[in-house]
């Protein structure tokens, strides 16, 4: 790339607003059979108190994911999206838009089933379908997985370990799957949980309209409370 082209691309890139939450830094993890998140496992190593990793589940969904992406872009924030296989195939262009915006993607089950309640064969079939959808749509090997409902199973934990896939649980959330919640209600819940955990992995859902509606306010609130966003990558 020529120097003039590089300068032109830099000039064209939108600058973050002075009051944007921003992304403080990127934390790169190895592709190993690890499990993080104090709801079920150890705390994610390398995070300081007050640092958070924003994660979103259940997408991509055309009605809400684009608004989540816009809110993140407005605040110069990078996040991790745990996608389901069925909507991933149905809305492949939107999934690639998430990736191309600089966010990280992981797996969340092909059909969003409760793996702890499935026969072993069905668990394996779902994982196979999820892996195929991820590779077909995104053209790369997945590095991370979050269980739907956080319902871990020994069968799946062993299968993911054999693939060197990291399991991501959570440290804090807003319970944004519950209906009829205002932005203030979601912010109050999230701040309450973060006060207990001191930071860590935050669980939200980009497939929820109320989350997309509330996200600008949530990000502004996190900024006002002094939280710093860390973006996850895998080697």
UniProtKB/TrEMBL annotation:
It comes from the Bacteria. Residues 50-230 form the NodB homology domain. Residues 1-17 form the signal peptide. It is an enzyme of class 3 (hydrolase). GO terms for molecular function: hydrolase activity. Pfam families: Polysacc_deac_1. Keywords: Hydrolase, Metal-binding, Signal. Its EC number is 3.-.-.-. InterPro entries: Glyco_hydro/deAcase_b/a-brl (IPR011330), NODB_dom (IPR002509), Polysacc_deacetylase_ArnD (IPR050248). PANTHER family: CHITIN DEACETYLASE 1-RELATED (PTHR10587:SF133), GLYCOSYL TRANSFERASE-RELATED (PTHR10587). This is Polysaccharide deacetylase family protein. It comes from Pelomonas margarita. The lineage of its organism: Bacteria, Pseudomonadati, Pseudomonadota, Betaproteobacteria, Burkholderiales.
């Amino acid at each position: 790339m020529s120097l003039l082209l590089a300068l032109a691309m830099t000039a064209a890139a939108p600058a973050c607003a002075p009051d944007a939450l921003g992304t403080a830094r990127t934390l790169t993890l190895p592709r190993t059979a690890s499990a993080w998140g104090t709801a079920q496992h150890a705390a994610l190593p390398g995070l300081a108190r007050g640092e958070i990793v924003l994660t979103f589940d259940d997408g991509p969904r055309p009605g809400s994911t684009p608004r989540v992406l816009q809110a993140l872009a407005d605040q110069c924030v990078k996040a991790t999206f745990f996608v389901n296989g069925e909507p991933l195939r149905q809305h492949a262009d939107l999934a690639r838009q998430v990736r191309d915006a600089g966010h990280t993607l992981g797996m969340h089950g092909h059909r969003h089933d409760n793996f702890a309640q499935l026969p072993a064969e069905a668990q394996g079939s779902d994982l196979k379908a999820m892996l195929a959808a991820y590779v077909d749509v995104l053209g790369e090997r997945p590095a991370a997985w979050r269980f739907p409902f956080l319902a871990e199973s020994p069968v799946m934990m062993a299968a993911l370990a054999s693939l060197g896939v990291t399991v991501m649980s959570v440290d804090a959330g807003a319970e944004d799957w519950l209906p009829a919640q205002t932005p203030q209600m979601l912010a109050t819940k999230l701040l309450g949980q973060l006060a207990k955990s001191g930071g860590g992995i935050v669980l939200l859902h980009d497939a929820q309209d109320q989350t997309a509606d509330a996200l600008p306010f949530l990000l502004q609130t996190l900024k006002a409370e002094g939280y710093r966003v860390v973006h996850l990558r895998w080697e």
